[in-house]
Design goal:
2 copies of one chain form a homodimer.
Chain A: E1 6-8, E2 11-13, E3 16-20, H1 24-36, E4 40-44, H2 47-57, E5 61-65, H3 73-82, E6 91-95, H4 100-108, E7 113-116, H5 121-135, E8 144-146, E9 149-152, E10 157-160, E11 163-165, H6 169-180, E12 185-186, H7 188-196, H8 205-218, E13 227-230, E14 234-237
Parallel strand pairs in A: 3-4, 3-5, 5-6, 6-7
Antiparallel strand pairs in A: 1-2, 8-9, 9-10, 10-11, 12-14, 13-14
The structure holds a DNA duplex.
DNA sequence: AGCACCGTGTCACACGGTTGTCATAATTTC
DNA sequence: GAAATTATGACAACCGTGTGACACGGTGCT
């Protein structure tokens, strides 16, 4: 599992994190850590440029300094929460004083979490990940059954009339895609996009190999004929 | 997690109840009764906003209307059950027709109870309390037995066909979680959230070590194969 | 206090499974 | 038969997991 990026339905997205901090040294430190962890770091040093960044890039999370030159972080947080377009963006407050009152105020103003300076990079990243984890949209993965096969994403099991079928991760995703998109031909490129993800560059012929491996796993149950080759076009999952 | 979940502690602070209902009048009525009874009422009028609420507030119980504009309540219920993060949330179905078939379908789709409109507030609250009573004490203090293992939270003991099994606190909680959530794959992140808690920051690979320690403790009884590795996904407690 | 002990989290390393790629054989199409 | 396309077998690199060791903090004991 890539700890650095939020995974959703097989597609890897790189979360964008906006750092709103006026002290350059701290901003630099934050940006470094954030990028080190594999996120995209956006930066703003005051409220106007923060809004600009939010409008242009719609970040997935905002690290917001408590103390800012013009507008305080709390005000920004409240404004973010007031706008329908931004009220869903999670906020982590950065505060210098380990004051308990700051914590209360920060949370009341709509922050999802807060962290006091100085902070360890590990803790910061952990909190970021925790907050992001809570905000990843829930995509229900339902059990699928087709052509006598039963696939259960939650238990990560595949069965075919009693036979238990062992699959590697890639073959599992491949079969899952086929079972949720039956009776239709998919080119190798389409399969790569859907199963491997768009950002991965893999040889087209690799699909052949995984098709073969999937068939081999299905063969003991006599269900390998479900995966059909359509010459010149690609592959198809068909019950007939 | 800052929004203190009403579970976990075993003590019901204030259960959050999500009302999914498109008719404003009925939603209002429900909310009023729920709040009157001392619960926190969340509201959603369609499937998307319901998911939003679930994601943000993780309610302790869901009142789900049978008939909804876009996605039917049954579909939502099934999706809730399919997701590891939501499968434990109890559901009470609201149905207008006193039809017996609805009841069957509703229960099959994973609802814990159902109630037909019109209903008396007293009956509704009684059912809510009954369902909550059954569901809150999942983690705390209930003896569990699965796969030939017996776990008793009150005495903090684990036995496997005569063998007494010694576990450290963390391994105990880990096993308890697995035994109350069998046959389902959990990622390291999910296990950290569920067993360690969301505000604890621990390396993901630490889970491996505790899995190993748990297996080592189970090995003398020959039950270490109950904890299965699902490569690329996580771990699973399975009796098969 | 000093001590040993336990539980825990982290790391480094080893091992095996998985994966992508290629060369080659088999198959289909014209 | 030749060309195009796909199936197969083999292989090396990589990644994920298992494992042992160690450090740290807490607890109870002498």
């Amino acid at each position: 599992m890539l700890a650095t990026s939020s995974r959703n339905l097989g597609v890897i997205v790189q979360a964008k994190i906006l750092i709103v901090e006026d002290e350059p040294a701290i901003a630099e430190l934050l940006a470094f850590n954030v990028m080190q962890a594999g996120f995209i770091a956006l930066r703003a040093e005051d409220a106007p440029s923060a809004w600009q960044q939010i409008r242009d890039h719609s970040p997935d999370l905002i690290l917001l300094d408590w103390m800012l030159p013009e507008t305080s972080g709390v005000v920004i947080a409240k404004q973010l929460r007031a706008d329908a377009r931004t009220c869903d963006i999670p906020i982590i407050m950065l505060t210098a004083r380990g004051d308990e009152r700051d914590k209360i105020l920060g949370l009341e103003s709509g922050a999802d979490d807060y962290i006091t300076k100085p902070f360890s990079p590990r803790e910061l990243m952990a909190r970021i990940r925790a907050v992001l984890r809570r905000h990843i949209p829930i995509m229900p993965d339902e059990n699928v059954s087709a052509g006598g096969l039963e696939l259960s994403p939650v238990t990560h099991r595949v069965t075919a009339k009693g036979h238990s079928i062992e699959l590697g991760p890639t073959e599992f995703r491949l079969l899952q895609f086929f079972m949720t998109h039956t009776e239709r031909v998919y080119s190798r490129t389409q399969l790569l996009d859907q199963v491997w993800g768009t950002q991965v560059f893999v040889e087209e012929r690799t699909v052949d190999v995984h098709i073969r491996r999937l068939r081999a796993a299905l063969e003991p149950a006599g269900m390998d004929n479900l995966i059909q080759t359509v010459r010149g076009s690609g592959y198809r999952f068909s019950t007939t």
